TrEMBL record:
This is 5-amino-6-(5-phosphoribosylamino)uracil reductase. It is an enzyme of class 1 (oxidoreductase). The lineage of its organism: Eukaryota, Viridiplantae, Streptophyta, Embryophyta, Tracheophyta. It catalyses: 2,5-diamino-6-hydroxy-4-(5-phosphoribosylamino)-pyrimidine + H2O = 2,5,6-triamino-4-hydroxypyrimidine + D-ribose 5-phosphate; 5-amino-6-(5-phospho-D-ribosylamino)uracil + H2O = 5,6-diaminouracil + D-ribose 5-phosphate. One of its GO terms (molecular function) is diaminohydroxyphosphoribosylaminopyrimidine deaminase activity.
Length: 579
């Protein structure tokens, strides 16, 4: 996909410098992980060539923005310099301070790793900077046109540092990580339940770091009963994640380390009506209790997202871990493997029953990493890929030239395919008859656009009797599916009767039929006009000519013709039904 026309191209010698500085911006942004929620992790680097003259990152919610910090550090050296940001600035407080800081400092050019994933902020800061005559490059956009290794690495660092925001925006749940420590034979505890300690102290320090990067940590009732954890970060930082316990029955001890809210805030999540007296006991200790009609990981994650949590760490046993993985709310796995063997037929494993009976059903991790920590090995990887927030628009550049109201990176995509979908009437199969005259001026009524389109494959051939018979058969087909099926069969068996110019005229024929359909039915015209500014994609996973395909690899000619028709309707330049 091509970049938007407002983007400036970079010269080759600047690629490496840009990538290095953007990666540095992502690196320093990572210092705020766990503290800036619900805001993204922002970092800003100001450089002159290879020399860094200013840096800053968003410390926490409500603190000075990264751009202003970097400008203040750079002072006079900011004028004429380049600013590098891991993420497009977001106007969180209504004063555009981050963007204004760069403009007032005299920054000459801005290089951004990613556009902002939130729709109401995406492109806003970029447009302001460009309106002030500033050159802006977006690495995430440039990679749509050029595959450059240094850019790919820089982009990956930007994606990783704001993975919580990207997952939350895409799926409406926090970015969730599960971690566990297991022996070489796959056990997380002895048969007795004893588990202290499987992993080394160095590995446990890594876990403290994971907690410190999280907004909340979740355990199940078994973990509270058997381990009595504190779930504090214990890393000397100021951030302590919310500690959450999931228990349907509330069969929990009256005294537990988690009930001491001086160490950190605790929330107990349970099923409605469970042990009311115990709920009151917890509340008297300062523990918050939340009741769910049905307690499950999906409901809990949606609730956490509604509270503004972006990152959640699951430190639970195998049964709850399996439930969370099965619910599709776990995005990354950290497995600490210790070179120990304890055996035990009934010793617990890190993930309980997932219902798999064949190895082909196994969940494969993506982007797997290996790290040796003392004698332990840390294996980590994603269960779900980091979402790409750039809209996948088939033939994006062509789409924007068809309808100038569509802006590539801010576009809303409307998919249509089956006639019962919200915009299903855009389909050729919708039950809207059209009257199309033939070349002799004789008016014919066709049950659907598809009936008409398929019949035109045989028009104009010399074998008039056979062709007329084919056209009549297609015209009388009981459904558009039947008409398409019949026409394809006839086309295959009697290829000599297919008009020689079919491939060159079929788009024009389709467009004529669409014009007739939307000029005949006012409510269809109104619906089409209501989509102004949106990209229309025929969502057929199989038809890569008229449809957009599974991953945007199709040509999407039906969607493109509808957008062209929409543009003509909006301009008032539309003729009536014609051949």
């Amino acid at each position: 996909m091509a970049v938007a026309s407002t983007m400036f191209s970079l010269s080759l010698p600047s690629f490496d410098n840009d990538a290095v500085h953007v990666r540095r911006a992502a690196e320093i942004a990572d210092a705020s992980a766990g503290m800036s929620s619900p805001h993204p992790n922002y970092g800003c680097v100001i450089a002159r060539g290879k020399e860094v003259v200013g840096e800053g990152y968003l410390y926490a919610e409500g603190t000075k923005c990264a751009e202003l910090q970097a400008v203040e550090m750079a002072r006079d050296k900011a004028r004429g310099a380049i600013a590098f940001l891991n993420l497009e600035p977001g106007d969180s407080y209504g004063n555009n301070k981050s963007v204004v800081s760069l403009i007032q400092a005299g920054i000459e050019r801005v290089v951004i790793g990613l556009r902002h994933p939130l729709q109401h902020l995406r492109g806003k800061a970029i447009n302001i900077l460009q309106s002030q005559g500033m050159q802006v490059n977006v690495i995430g956009d440039d990679l749509q046109m050029n595959s450059i290794q240094s850019y790919e690495e820089a982009l990956k660092s930007c994606l990783l540092v704001n993975a919580p925001l990207l997952y939350g925006t895409a799926f409406g749940v926090p970015y969730s990580v599960t971690k566990y420590a297991m022996t070489l034979d796959g056990k997380i505890a002895c048969t007795s339940g004893h588990s202290s300690w499987i992993s080394s102290k160095l590995s446990r320090n890594k876990v403290f770091d994971l907690r410190g990067r999280s907004d909340a940590v979740i355990v199940g009732g078994n973990t509270v009963r058997l381990d009595d954890p504190h779930l504090t970060a214990r890393h000397g930082g100021t951030h302590v994640p919310v500690r959450m316990v999931m228990s349907r029955t509330l069969s929990l001890p009256n005294e537990a380390n988690l009930w001491n809210v001086d160490d950190g805030y605790t929330i107990v999540l349970t099923q409605r009506g469970a042990r009311k007296n115990f709920q009151e006991l917890l509340r008297s200790k300062g523990v918050e209790v939340i009741e769910f009609d049905v307690l499950n990981p999906r409901e809990v994650m949606e609730y956490c997202y509604s509270r503004g949590y972006l990152s959640v760490l699951w430190e639970c046993g195998g049964e709850l871990a399996a439930s969370a993985i099965g619910a599709g709310v776990i995005h990354k796995v950290y497995a600490f493997v210790s070179p120990k063997i304890i055996g035990g037929k009934n010793a617990p494993s890190p993930v309980g029953e997932l219902g798999m009976v064949e190895m082909s059903q196994a969940l494969n991790l993506m982007d797997v990493s290996f790290e040796q920590i003392g004698r332990d090995m840390l294996i980590s990887g994603f269960l779900q890929p980091i979402p790409d927030m750039i809209p996948v628009i088939p033939f994006k550049n062509d789409t924007t030239s068809i309808d100038p109201m569509v802006t590539s990176y801010d576009a809303n995509i409307i998919f249509f395919y089956k006639t019962w979908d919200s915009y299903g009437v855009f389909s050729n199969f919708s039950p809207h008859s059209i009257h199309m005259p033939d070349k002799n001026g004789q008016d014919y009524e066709w049950s659907t656009v598809e009936h008409y389109y398929q019949s035109q494959k045989f028009i104009g051939q010399t074998d008039l009797t056979t062709v007329h018979d084919f056209v009549e058969q297609i015209k009388l087909a009981k459904s558009p599916e039947a008409a398409a099926r019949l026409a394809r069969m006839l086309q295959k068996k009697h290829s000599n009767l297919v008009r020689s110019d079919w491939e060159s005229v079929k788009i024009d024929i389709m467009y004529s039929a669409l014009k007739c359909k939307f000029s005949t039915y006012p409510h269809l015209k109104a619906l089409l006009l209501s989509t102004a500014g949106s990209v229309l994609v025929e969502a057929s996973p199989h038809d890569l000519f008229w449809g957009g395909g599974r991953d945007g690899e199709g040509l999407n000619y039906l969607g493109r013709l509808l957008m062209q028709l929409r543009a003509e309707l909006l301009s008032g330049d539309l003729s009536t039904c014609e051949t």
